[in-house]
Design goal:
Elements (H helix, E strand, L loop, with lengths): L2 H10 L1 H21 L4 E11 L3 H13 L2 H10 L2 H11 L3 H5 L2 E6 L5 E8 L2 H20 L5 E7 L12 H26 L21 H17 L4 E7 L11 H18 L5 E4 L4 E6 L4 H16 L3 E2 L6 E2 L4 E7 L6 H15 L7 E3 L7
Parallel strand pairs: 10-11
Antiparallel strand pairs: 1-3, 1-4, 2-3, 5-7, 5-10, 6-7, 8-9
């Protein structure tokens, strides 16, 4: 599906796309604002051998060969015993206890223990980290004299929260809102019921001259559907039969007779499978199935000249009228355009053809860029 077609469908469903986008984006912003900020306080300790140089050398060897020794200190820091001692030393309330989260782990490739405490209160996070730090230091002193914990970094007070990540949440919310809005718009367009023949569909126009505009649009959609399933090309052509304004200066009866004669000329020179209809006061539309653009240009130009060269005799008065048609056409293959898109492209080609004083036949594909 072409990007231009998708944009056209979204614009046609703007009443659905815009609310979905705004509601989704607003929900993501509200969710971000509603989240409580989370602060993190960190501290680090070094697991090192203790005692004399000879014992320390032996301890270093043991520590390097058995990393689980240093891991033991991380497990001790995460234990309920250490956390309970920190809670009691700070005399934390039940809500404050539930507002702190401790993570103790070894820094990869080193015997460094990192304590990280997260809380919605930056001061509480720092106090709890320091309490865990002190409780762990006291407890490990009782484990033996081979190793000890040395403070590298004291617990800090975070000035900015680590969550929520407002820029990331806004960017993600915007992306999801756009994707959801586009998906809803395209889905609603695809699932919308297509036009169906109504029981009261009028096949002829109000003057009984040619097929009506509703009937022509029905046949256009049917032919486009057939063309999508085949490897053929469908051409839609529009012809302004009063390009020179001649029909505006005659009596209504003469104008009616002239248009009826023009419709007869079209039917005489079109193929059996072709369709012509009057979709405006002086505007006729042609459907040319299984026709290439080059062949259609030749056919329409031939029709334009046949209509424009001879004078049209009006019954009951002997008046003779000579019209100067202008024509624009567009070819349709298997691209994603719909009937309204195709009709608008043909109108653009017709507007370009009307720039010639005597009219011409203009294909949409050869239009000069605006």
């Amino acid at each position: 599906m072409e990007v231009r077609t998708i944009l056209h469908q979204l614009l046609r469903r703007w009443w659905l796309v815009v609310p979905v986008f705004l509601i989704t984006l607003g929900s993501s912003l509200l969710f971000t604002v509603a989240q409580r900020p989370v602060y993190e306080s960190t501290s680090t300790l070094l697991v090192k051998p203790a005692g004399a140089f000879e014992d320390a050398l032996s301890a270093v060897g043991t520590l390097s060969r058995q990393p689980e020794i240093a891991e033991t200190y991380a497990q001790v820091a995460n234990s309920r015993t250490i956390r309970r001692e920190a809670v009691e030393s700070l005399d934390l309330t039940f809500l404050e206890q539930n507002d702190v989260r401790l993570e103790a782990r070894l820094v990869p490739g080193a015997n460094v223990l990192r304590l990280a405490v997260r809380s919605s209160d930056s001061v509480l996070a720092e106090r709890y980290n320091a309490a865990i730090h002190d409780a762990l230091a006291r407890y490990t002193q009782e484990l033996g004299e081979a190793f000890e914990l040395v403070t590298l970094d004291e617990a800090n007070v975070a000035s900015t929260p680590i969550a929520p990540n407002v820029p990331a949440n806004i960017a993600l919310g915007f992306a999801v809102s756009v994707a959801l809005a586009i998906g809803v718009g395209i889905s609603s367009e695809l699932l919308a019921p297509g036009p169906r023949i109504r029981d009261n569909l009028v096949m002829l126009d109000a003057d009984g001259i040619a097929f009506s505009a509703p009937f022509f649009m029905l046949r256009l959609r049917q032919e486009m559907s057939r063309t999508r399933r085949s490897s053929t090309t469908l051409v839609l052509a529009l012809m302004n039969m009063d390009h020179g304004g001649v029909l505006q200066n005659v009596a209504p009866r003469a104008r009616h007779d002239a248009l009826r004669a023009i419709a007869g000329l079209l039917d005489q020179h079109l193929r059996v499978e072709d369709i012509s209809a009057r979709i405006g006061p002086d505007l006729f539309a042609l459907l040319l199935p299984d026709t290439s653009e080059a062949d259609a240009v030749a056919m329409v130009e031939g029709l334009r000249r046949r209509i424009g060269v001879p004078t049209i005799e009006v019954e009951g008065g002997g008046d003779q009228i000579r019209v100067l048609p202008a024509a624009g056409l567009v070819a349709f293959g298997r691209q994603g355009a719909n009937a309204d898109d195709l009709l608008e492209q043909a109108r653009r080609a017709l507007r370009d053809a009307e720039t010639s004083p005597v009219g011409k036949t203009q294909a949409f594909s050869t239009l000069r860029p605006a």
